[in-house]
Amino acid sequence: MKRFTCDELVEVITAYLEDALDQTARDGVQAHLACCEGCERYVEQLRTTISVLGDPPPEKLQADVYDRLMSAFREGQRS
To answer: What is the largest CA-CA distance in the chain?
Structure first.
């Protein structure tokens, strides 16, 4: 299993979230997330962003969506 660094994880996180990694790489990402609180928080923030924006995201965010997104990021950084 590949052991990812934080920088490497950032490079593959989109593929991970889109389930586009092979199983070996996916296992490596999950192993890293299990022992790196900062990267785990980063991935949760990305998931929150995807959830708030929808898939695919709109061209321009409405003011209330932008405010909710920023609020979610602030809350994520505090935990």
So the answer is: 43
